[in-house]
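Lab notebook page, bench 4
Experiment: in silico fold of construct C2
Operator: M.H.
Input chain length: 400 residues
Purpose: comparison with the prior construct
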Amino acid sequence: MSQRPSRYPNDKFTPRPEDHFTFGLWTVGNPGRDPFGHPVRAVMSPVKIVHELSKLGAYGVNLHDEDLIPFEASPAERDKILRDFKGALAETGMKVPMATTNLFSQPVFREGAFTSNDAQVRALALAKTMKSIDLGVELGASTYVFWGGREGVETNASKDPRDAVKRFREALNFLCEYVRDNGYNLKFALEAKPNEPRGDLFLPTSGHMLAFIYTLDHPDMVGLNPEVAHEVMPGLDFSHVVGQALEAGKLFHIDLNGQKPGRYDQDLRFASEDQKGAFFLVKLLEDSRWDGMRHFDSHAYRTEDEQGVWDFAYYSMRSYLILKEKVARFHADADIREILATLEKRNTAQTGGLGPSFKYDKKTAAALKGFSFDATGLAAKGYEYERLDQLTTEVLLGVR
């Protein structure tokens, strides 16, 4: 890691490579363009991004193919770009844990990529993705993300959704076989989003994606890459999304950012919105001892100059570490522990010598049907969730 700028404190919340924080080249490299305004910052080279993130304590960078190598680059230009980028990685010790393909920016994909009504466009999408997979593997990536930014419709008259799902399945089956045939150590992670840039996107939530995975030829190779903003946009609780992915063994990657419900995809700095939601997400990841990358898919406010971009990156990581420390305080708090211990007693209570969990057999079924439950007594006792929530809030506010 290069020397950290003196602007940032050196304390227990200082990011370090062992924290496994990563950023996409497209995140800190975002020039501040939006649908109503031109770029406000100069484009930064991938080499500079690698060096600057290294100074801040990041572990690595992730990339789309076009983040590194322009779509129209010649073979000679490609070789030079790749050589310089590898040199920056070697100098800093930064890694490339994840890669993906841009199948949404080029005009040819305006109607879709894997789900396009044009078979030649679908073929181009496969070819582009295979080349991008080769690039990712060459750079050391072990996870490959699929976000179908153009896989959707503005009018349902244009496409039968059954055909779209079949085409998407065909593409992923093809690419799984490509990875297997080449002996790559690579797993796929599917990223859902309900809308934007298309009016409606296919497979709009992680739940849709999870169900879809089990229809593939090699479901063991495919998992999820849930993103905070994409699940909060339609009003879902992100920690529940991640919890289901963890329970299924399908959390292959994660995108951290901030988002206000019901808005366009804001890609705000992690924990800049809904600090309680961010706390429970960090708690879930840390309690489960999930060993994946903590990847930030977000960008600085358009108001910022280049220094503001590095502030955005540094404080994204710092906020995660602050919340991680709050999780430790939550677990150590005597009053919280007492409430949770009481809940655990109720959770492990037996019913007529049975339980607390139940696996069906005829004897157990008959015993449960014949047991005389004290429903009135069970209903009379509260759960202390008001107090538990307040204590949690006080931990977050720093008074406990």
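Observations: Residues 334-397 form one domain. Strands lie at 21-24, 60-64, 98-100, 143-147, 152-153, 187-191, 200-201, 222-224, 255-256, 294-296.
Next step: discuss at group meeting.
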